[in-house]
Amino acid sequence: xxxxxxxxxxxxxxxxxxxxxxxxxxxxxxxxxxxxxxxxxxxxxxxxxxxxxxxxxxxxxxxxxxxxxxxxxxxxxxxxxxxxxxxxxxxxxxxxxxxxxxxxxxxxxxxxxxxxxxxxxxxxxxxxxxxxxxxxxxxxxxxxxxxxxxxxxxxxxxxxxxxxxxxxxxxxxxxxxxxxxxxxxxxxxxxxxxxxxxxxxxxxxxxxxxxxxxxxxxxxxxxxxxxxxxxxxxxxxxxxxxxxxxxxxxxxxxxxxxxxxxxxxxxxxxxxxxxxxxxxxxxxxxxxxxxxxxxxxxxxxxxxxxxxxxxxxxxxxxxxxxxxxxxxxxxxxxxxxxxxxxxxxxxxxxxxxxxxxxxxxxxxxxxxxxxxxxxxxxxxxxxxxxxxxxxxxxxxxxxxxxxxxxxxxxxxxxxxxxxxxxxxxxxxxxx
Length: 431
Prior knowledge:
By secondary structure, the chain is an alpha/beta fold.
């Protein structure tokens, strides 16, 4: 009897210990979320946490603030140390380097295995921003961010120039801009700090494509900045500064954002900034938005790019991280982003949502952001280690070419042929 009692006692102890271990394993986990802060994203961060709490109410989210200015360096260091958060902020310019640097992982298997997630409801050209060499899903994008034309109605009206329409051509817009410059002294195209806006691929590459050119051959081996079509597009683009004088000079200090302070009649950017323009109180001028103008061949082309989030290579529980990140594309989150004037919905199912279509202006023509989506192109991917349209030697060579033309007076052919040769030499040496 004593032996039986002793054995029973041992069994009870073992069961208690097992229960203790199981309890420790089942204890609430923590999800680490590395993201940026600011008016453009705070609401999105909060909505993602809110959506996650609906399916994992017992798992706390630890937000870790990242600095956008040093994002790539910080995350590379964390990846080397194996200390990345489970989910991180990213953007289209980081998709390739973060994937190749072992920072982000391909989320496509997670997406395809999730019966509650429908990738087919997301606009295909935005998903292209999340791919590496045409494959995978390395970023869940946040908004249907297509570069669209903002215009200062007041300046157009003061100059007696016709307001832009969905059928406007670049020739007509340039003609109106000349009238605005003559009658009001205002420029049309903002240049940004050191000409940064002028040199943004999402604005200048469409001119190359609109004139029938490409930056890189389809096989990724030959740079084509020196083709007749590319040079024609670049000539027409830079003429707005060098010939027509309607582009903000690189050394002209507008005293702030040229469009926001009313010294540039146009701005070509994504939907998010509309919230900042709306916040001007009182509104210093009337404004609206319109789809991109047409090129001489009738084609409309514009750039697109957005920020988003990725599951990292160090995620403790990739499935849990996926459950957090997929909330960004929930109808509730996408609609909340839009109703806050912080972006436009990525889901096709929200295209005709009555609440979105009824949003109070400005902009009155908010549908232009969505209508413009069909005209969007993604940034060209360059193989090797020469950089991209955002950074590295490729970016530097192209920026230098724009400076040479717009500031230095060099011909488009000479400046971009030199850039072409230097980029080609780098690509050849990287093989």
